[in-house]
Amino acid sequence: MNPPHDDVLIIGGGAIGLATALALLDAGRGVRILEAGAVGGGASHGNCGTITPSHAPPLAAPGVVAQALRWMFTPDAPLYLKPRIDPALWHWLLRFAARCNPRDWRQSTQARAALLNDARARLADWVGRYGLQCEFEEEGLDYVFRDPRRFQQYMDESVVLKTFGIATQVFGGTDYEREEPAMLPGVAGAIRFPGDARLRPDRYVAELARVVRERGGVIEEQCRVDRLEPTPDGVRLATSQGERKGGDAVIALGAWTPAFARRLGIRAPIQPGKGYSITYSRPARVPRHPMVLKDRSVCVTVWGSGFRLGSTMEFSGHDDTLNATRLAALERGAREFLREPVGAEVHERWCGWRPMTWDDLPLLGRAPGQRKVWIAAGHGMLGISMSTATGQLMADLMTGRPPAFDPSPYRPERFA
């Protein structure tokens, strides 16, 4: 029996792979998604679900290296580097450190803002057009501070962000406590990003999968791709479910992209940045807006169906251990800010790997040296936020249509 021959084979069924599939289907292409586990079971599942043009500034910023060195031996620090011998990680860190300067910070911010702003508007359109039932709300996001110096630092940064089309509102501590009764006293101030939004990420990816199937796309779960070979008329994949053939292939494997791409001679310098979250039943008194408790780098998201604390960044390879110390840091941070920091029931304790590049920009486009292989990976902490713009950009590049914004900052060739 001959294997199926598809138009486009998408390797990876997270938010990026699904959004790319949906945009390609709308452009008239056929798609088959191959997912090694369950659709949306990776980093798409347990993140905080905030849609954040506010997060345009990259992790690589002036002062970050000194801060990271101070935190290096603090296991519950917001940014933690597990000491170990790993040449790829140290090479990545050196390149990352070299970008912690004002010029590169501004360059990455501009490119991230273009992707995030397009994705934010496109997401609202997709929710309406496809009827995505994912608890999407356009209610903004708040950065909340108890440290006055940190508050001032971010007020200064918010002035710069306005030049990238990211609006802010600033609140004094007393005014914010009056508006947000879920907070404990002692708030120094808050910055609201009214253009941000939120959704429930596991439901978002499930809805994307539903629409992809309804529009004729095929999704194969529990189908691990072991090898990709170019052919005269496209690509051939060896999978755990047999051979698959297609005209084009898109690698959308998140933090697993480097090992897969390496077999094709493609360089994808992505490090797995481990994040954690805890999902609870909804407390009685919850914040009115999603928020980041900036002094502790803890994100708080409220949905009708639950309540989640999340964040932290840990460079420990593909270690899938649930680190109790880092989970406890989420709850401790929430207790410093919120009257009801946790729900009565814990629904899930989770960790997952964010695909981090040293310039904080994804790899989007044709793979270097390949005619029929494309890459959509490396979105860091912003895969959900960037998913719709990524999907549309990939579809535009693959069909030869003019993209909505300049694709050059994300070209995979920059790492070749």
From TrEMBL:
Record keywords, A-Z: Oxidoreductase
Any coiled-coil regions, as ranges: none
One Pfam family, short name: DAO
Record's keyword annotation contains Disulfide bond: no
Domain FAD dependent oxidoreductase: 7-397
Top-level taxon in the UniProt lineage: Bacteria
SUPFAM superfamilies: FAD-linked reductases, C-terminal domain, FAD/NAD(P)-binding domain
This protein's name: FAD-dependent oxidoreductase
Organism, as annotated: Pseudoxanthomonas mexicana
Organism ancestry: Bacteria, Pseudomonadati, Pseudomonadota, Gammaproteobacteria, Lysobacterales
